């Protein structure tokens, strides 16, 4: 496949990849989602990530139908990557995409759940061992030797399931022997850009470069060769230094040259005399000829010795059989899978159930909020959560939450400002996206159908025809396409006048039902909507008062089939209570009369405030 055939790889990018990696290696890096290889080749990380997402998930990236969905998708992967045990694992997480094959979704989910269980099974000591092993592996650049050392470090971990299972089959003694040999070699590369330590173990000794410290004789020959090359490049200096000695004739000059070179290089004088030319017309001819031949001789000797040492090291590596290759692959995969398992454990994610014709959650939590998050229960479409009394009892015992209704194609979510309506939309979007990627979700229980498109549209404050037009162009085309669409639209009325917004919202609800899609629409215009079609309902979120600190107290759990009410008396009560200036307080008290002075006073009494 040509590099230019991949999305985002234009002529300049293709040329850069070909120059730095070679076309074959570049194609391999793209196909294996190797972000590090592309970044090392000079491709900006963000661009490399986009290329690899498209290369490995183009068929399913259409799920992300709006920019707001793509933002949630990016934020979810960034959150997951923050728990990565290695930089490369983090890169692999960032290029995860929604999957179109249900079997692939289930397989990935099984692997991540197994990794989560394995991570949670680690005791504190073993968890520290795992983190340290991968940190050292990462710091070493993920080389083959680093992978073998990581595999040996993980040998004593008292968990052999999930990502640790392939490591448990390795021969530790053979790996220790191979690790010593791998420390003194690296694979040669003919590609421009130099050697790559992270390539697979070379198949033959001829492909190995032996590093310093592997063999004393090889190190000595290389030192002598480097010194001889230095003298060769300074032949005239050699002539001058020898002539400054007690040189009576040409023969004594030649002897002086041999002694001088032997002293400066450590080469045996006999070897130098063997390299000297038999006939030389003058001093310059003798010195340059001697040094040139000596360099050639030492190069040949060093090459022969390197071949011998490389063969010995290769034999030690080969004695490990396929364990080295297995360790290289298993350590990289374990870092990736354990990173996702760690993410699932840290965020308290659970296995979703795939099925039904909708999305339903019980005990769902917004993944991006800090601190304690109040769980909620919600659903749109058909589902089987709490389909029988036994499961209903389990759900109520766990969270004291009632399972959401089933069967409605559209819900209209109403309620107080700052009541968590947008947060609920984002939570549903996150659950649907994580499930589509084969990842666990932030809910106690979740049942998620498979969608072709998710349309998420956040509230926008701009109020003009251009915003209305762009919004409709963003959300309507995906809705009318064939396939299954999930609509999550926030406060549509914010972009046009309320009366017309209600008409448009009625039209969207009708269109959603007519097209067989699913939708959750947030609005403050429930009272202005026409009668909703069958299989559509209105839910509400309610503010319940003010806390002692005058913060709004909200029951974030929607009440099904009930219109939520805005409660301005709570806000006005807080303004009255917080007003320091007597005149300003009087103004707020005037507003209290407009919204219901009795309700305001009751609220103030509830928070134990009394006027001066």
The percent of residues in helical segments reads: 40-55%
What gap, in angstroms, lies between the N and C termini?
80 Å
Low-pLDDT stretches are 189-203, 387-391
User: What does the radius of gyration come to?
Assistant: 36 Å
**Counted beta strands:** 12
> Proportion of β residues?
5-15%
Biggest pleated-sheet summary: 6 strands, mixed
Tertiary shape: elongated
CATH class of the largest domain: Alpha Beta
The total of helices stands at 24
User: In CATH, what is the homologous superfamily of the largest domain?
Assistant: P-loop containing nucleotide triphosphate hydrolases
User: Can you tell me the CATH architecture of the largest domain?
Assistant: 3-Layer(aba) Sandwich
Broad structural category = alpha/beta
Sheet with most strands: strand arrangement: 8-9-10-6-11-12
Average pLDDT number: 83
Number of domains: 4
Protein name: DNA mismatch repair protein
GO molecular function: ATP binding; DNA binding
Pfam family, one: MutS_V
Keywords: ATP-binding, DNA-binding, Nucleotide-binding
Kindly describe this structure.
- GO terms for molecular function: ATP binding; DNA binding.
- InterPro entries: DNA_mismatch_repair_MutS_C, DNA_mismatch_repair_MutS_core, MutS, P-loop_NTPase.
- Residues 71-372 form the DNA mismatch repair protein MutS core domain.
- With 612 residues, this protein is an alpha/beta fold.
- The chain folds into 4 domains: 95-201 and 320-345; 216-316, no CATH class; 350-566, P-loop containing nucleotide triphosphate hydrolases (Rossmann fold), CATH 3.40.50.300; 569-606, no CATH class.
- It is built from 24 helices and 12 strands.
- It has helices spanning 11-20, 23-31, 35-40, 45-57, 67-81, 87-94, 102-121, 124-139, 144-153, 165-168, 172-182, 216-232, 235-243, 250-265, 269-275, 283-318, 323-346, 389-399, 421-436, 465-480, 498-514, 568-578, 582-595, 597-606; strands spanning 185-187, 208-210, 353-354, 357-364, 376-382, 410-415, 445-448, 453-457, 485-490, 518-522, 536-546, 552-559.
- Strands 8-9-10-6-11-12 form a 6-stranded mixed sheet, with helices on both faces. Strands 3-7-4-5 form a 4-stranded mixed sheet. A two-stranded antiparallel ribbon has the order 1-2.
- A hairpin with a 5-residue loop joins β11 and β12.
- α5 (67-81) crosses α19 (421-436), α8 packs antiparallel against α9 (144-153) and α22 (568-578) packs antiparallel against α23.
- The longest helix has 36 residues, at 283-318.
- It starts with 10 loop residues before the first helix and ends in a 6-residue tail after the last helix.
- The relative contact order is 0.09.
């Amino acid at each position: 496949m040509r590099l230019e055939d991949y999305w985002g790889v234009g002529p300049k990018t293709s040329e850069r990849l070909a120059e730095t990696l070679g076309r074959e290696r570049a194609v391999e890096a793209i196909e294996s989602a190797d972000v590090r290889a592309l970044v090392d080749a000079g491709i900006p990380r963000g661009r490399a990530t986009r290329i690899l997402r498209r290369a490995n998930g183009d068929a399913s990236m259409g799920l992300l139908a709006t920019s707001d969905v793509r933002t949630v998708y990016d934020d979810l992967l960034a959150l997951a990557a923050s728990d990565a045990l290695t930089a490369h694992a983090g890169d692999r997480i960032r290029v995860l995409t929604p999957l179109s094959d249900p079997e692939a979704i289930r397989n990935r989910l099984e692997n991540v759940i197994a990794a989560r269980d394995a991570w949670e099974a680690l005791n504190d000591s073993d968890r520290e061992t795992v983190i340290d092993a991968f940190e050292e592996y990462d710091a070493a650049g993920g080389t083959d030797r680093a992978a073998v050392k990581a595999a040996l470090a993980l040998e004593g971990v008292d968990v052999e399931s999930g990502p640790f299972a392939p490591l448990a089959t390795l021969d530790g003694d053979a790996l220790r022997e191979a690790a010593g040999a791998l420390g003194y070699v690296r694979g040669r590369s003919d590609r421009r850009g130099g050697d790559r330590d992270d390539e697979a173990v070379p198949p033959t000794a001829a492909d190995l470069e032996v590093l310093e410290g592997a063999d004393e004789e090889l190190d000595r020959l290389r030192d002598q060769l480097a010194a001889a090359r230095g003298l060769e490049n300074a032949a005239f200096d050699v002539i001058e230094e020898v002539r400054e000695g007690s040189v009576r004739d040409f023969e004594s000059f030649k002897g002086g040259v041999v002694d001088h070179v032997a002293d400066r290089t450590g080469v045996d004088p006999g070897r130098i005399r063997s390299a000297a030319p038999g006939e030389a017309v003058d001093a310059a001819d003798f010195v340059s000829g001697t040094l040139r031949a000596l360099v050639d001789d030492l190069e040949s000797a060093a090459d022969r010795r390197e071949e011998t040492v490389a063969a010995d090291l290769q034999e030690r590596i080969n004695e490990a059989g396929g364990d080295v290759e297995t360790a290289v692959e298993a350590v990289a995969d374990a870092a990736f899978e354990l990173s996702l398992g760690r993410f699932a454990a840290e965020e308290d994610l659970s296995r979703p159930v795939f099925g039904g014709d909708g999305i339903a959650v019980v005990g769902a939590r917004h993944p991006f909020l800090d601190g304690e998050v109040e769980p909620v229960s919600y659903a749109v479409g058909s589902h089987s959560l709490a389909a029988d009394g036994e499961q209903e009892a389990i759900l109520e015992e766990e969270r004291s939450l009632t399972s959401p209704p089933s069967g409605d194609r559209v819900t209209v979510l109403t309620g107080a400002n700052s009541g968590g309506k947008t947060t609920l939309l984002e939570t549903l979007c996150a659950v649907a996206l994580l499930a589509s990627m084969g990842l666990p979700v932030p809910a106690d229980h979740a049942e998620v159908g498979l969608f072709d498109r998710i349309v998420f549209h956040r509230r926008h404050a701009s109020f003009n025809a251009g915003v209305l037009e762009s919004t409709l162009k963003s959300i309507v085309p995906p809705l009318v396409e064939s396939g299954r669409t999930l609509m999550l639209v926030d406060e549509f009325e914010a972009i046009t006048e309320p009366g017309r917004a209600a008409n448009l919202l009625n039209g969207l609800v009708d269109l959603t039902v007519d097209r067989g899609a699913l939708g959750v629409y947030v609005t403050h215009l429930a009272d202005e909507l026409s009668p909703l079609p069958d299989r559509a309902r209105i839910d509400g979120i309610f503010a319940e008062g003010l806390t002692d600190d005058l913060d709004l107290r909200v029951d974030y759990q929607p009440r099904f089939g009930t219109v939520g009410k805005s409660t301005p008396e709570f806000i006005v009560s807080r303004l009255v209570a917080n007003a320091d200036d007597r005149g300003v307080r009087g103004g707020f008290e005037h507003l209290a009369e407009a919204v219901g002075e009795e309700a305001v006073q009751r609220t103030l009494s509830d928070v134990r405030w009394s006027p001066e």
